UniProtKB/TrEMBL annotation, chain A:
The entry's keywords: Phosphoprotein, Transcription, Transcription regulation
One Gene Ontology term from the biological process aspect of the record: phosphorelay signal transduction system
Entry-annotated residues carrying 4-aspartylphosphate: 52
One Pfam entry name: Response_reg
Name of the protein: Two-component system chemotaxis response regulator CheY
UniProt-listed Gene3D superfamilies: 3.40.50.2300
From TrEMBL, chain B:
Domain CheR-type methyltransferase residue range list: 1-256
Catalysed transformations (reactions): L-glutamyl-[protein] + S-adenosyl-L-methionine = [protein]-L-glutamate 5-O-methyl ester + S-adenosyl-L-homocysteine
Species in which this protein is naturally found: Bradyrhizobium macuxiense
InterPro entries assigned to the protein according to its UniProt record, in alphabetical order: Bact_Chemotaxis_MeTrfase, CheR_C, CheR_MeTrfase, CheR_N, CheR_N_sf, SAM-dependent_MTases_sf
PANTHER family to which the protein is assigned, alphabetical: CHEMOTAXIS PROTEIN METHYLTRANSFERASE (PTHR24422), CHEMOTAXIS PROTEIN METHYLTRANSFERASE 1 (PTHR24422:SF21)
Protein name, per record: protein-glutamate O-methyltransferase
Keyword Ion transport belongs to the record: no
Amino acid sequence: MKTCLVVDDSGVVRKIARRILEGMEFTVIEAEDGAVALEACKRALPDAVLLDWNMPVMDGFEFLVQLRRMPGGDVPKVVFCTTENGIDHISRALHAGANEYIMKPFDKDIVIAKFQEVGLLALDTPAEA
Amino acid sequence: MTPPDYEYLRKLLKDHSGLDLAADKQYLIESRLLPLARKSGLSGIPDLVAKIRAGSSTHTVQVVEAMTTNETFFFRDKVPFDHFRDTIMPEVLKARAARRSVRIWCAAGSTGQEPYSLAMCLKEMGAALAGWRVEIIATDLSQEVLEKSKAGIYSQFEVQRGLPIQMLVKYFKQSGELWQINPELRAMVQHRQLNLLHDFSQLGTFDVIFCRNVLIYFDQDTKINIFNRLARLMEADGFLVLGAAETVVGLTDTFKPLPERRGLYRPSGVRAALAMPRPAMAVGY
């Protein structure tokens, strides 16, 4: 089973994401900010990271930069999931090594489509999964 | 909805669009037509049916448009676009090297995601197509849908289904919550209103035809008729792309499937006797 680290300071968003990802047969780990997420990555690198941008302590962008510098840190697929929907933010994220980008609000279909896009999910995964 | 109203709408849709609704699709009609009835200031579907029975062609057209589905995303199903890039276009580049032109038809162009996905694929090929004349013709039954396609403006939800983020950044311009595809790509696509049940021979000849997820709504005779007419305006070495749930097998021998390329077909060279499309369409469109 693949693992996905869900990083968001909102417990509600983490819960929604967990439900969607578990439906896609991922094992879900949660973190409420970038620093907690980085600690989790030091213990074990996940296959995927669903990453909010604005969080206390350490934001998603800083987490991404740190993750990509870790040994093996280039492997996890990082999908931003944020209300920051401006082209400038998207470009910065891609430049720093994000693999995909979800603009909130999101739903299951979007998560499935984006995870398929980066090769985390088989193409024939139905949206009704 | 009363059973006579349902039967009436079924027959109406069959006659005008070829849409062949099963006997148990009341919910589908209700979910699509109730919003339409309300929008037209009517109390519900019975009133809408009454208007049509009284001969309102406006309401008839609206009902047909609302019922012919437009569920679509960019790069829908992904595989056909991989075929387009890896199988179809390399062949076309060789076969048309002298003529340097390629004509592509999206026979159910809908709100534009498919023709613009093809346009993006072609752009990504870069210099290989420099100096080529590229035509993408997008047709659809619904004028409303074609207007949306022409504008090329999509919601944040729509651009997130199937469109890789790099493509969004590269080929779209953001305007608030909406995203518009670049003028250069819009200029690659021509739009025409067209009912597949009608004669479409005036469109000319094509190297590639995408006809996905539309034939599933037609009965067998109509499918055969459409396949045979598609074969007539396709180059002998052209390609036909069908949806995942569609096939020519068992229906016509004018096309043959490509081995190992699901959904991809080529003309077989067999010319089917061509019965004219059924002259069922009374309403003026």
